[in-house]
């Protein structure tokens, strides 16, 4: 497993797209944090407070999307260029390859997300007025502390979910289109359907994921936001396991 992870690390870091897409995560996340901080001038009551959740909005809206695309391409790129045969010849146990790819990018995504969160906090504080900056005490702010573990966990869940979709479809355009459509639109549109719409709104995986990340109550009053994370995690794990089963059975 360790040797497989090292080989996957070599392949990943030798790919230019990995570096520039990672740079985009930082660009969008820090760009929004900079905007948030610069608008916290303290000239009015509305601009007096600097909220931790506002500083990481760019990461939530755009950074996570790029992480989803990267996680998907960790698996589909080899099938696109036909490298999977050589990979499976070197490591005949295909599930080892799948787990190595998943674990490697999961660690990267969690670390990247945690660092980005901290950078967003401190960049916004640096650009805000002294009065507004003082309202966000990073290591004493309840919301900031929650985001520090909540967002990396959310990234890990997204990586697992997208890995499962990628293993099932094996095609970059189709897998990326599906996860992005599911992320942005599918559950929202299906929730308007008669009869079944209310169940989609309650039990859609991304609906519960949003509730966890935004810390809003889920539509089902019996579920907490933590329950939403567990529910989405169950979907993610189920898709990933199913993807490995399909990987083992299909031709390379």
Automatic annotation (TrEMBL):
Keywords from the named record: Membrane, Transmembrane, Transmembrane helix
Chain ranges passing through the membrane: 49-71, 102-124, 149-169, 176-193, 229-247
Domain of life: Bacteria
Stated name of the protein: ABC transporter permease
Source organism of the structure: Corynebacterium suranareeae
Keyword Membrane part of the UniProt annotation: yes
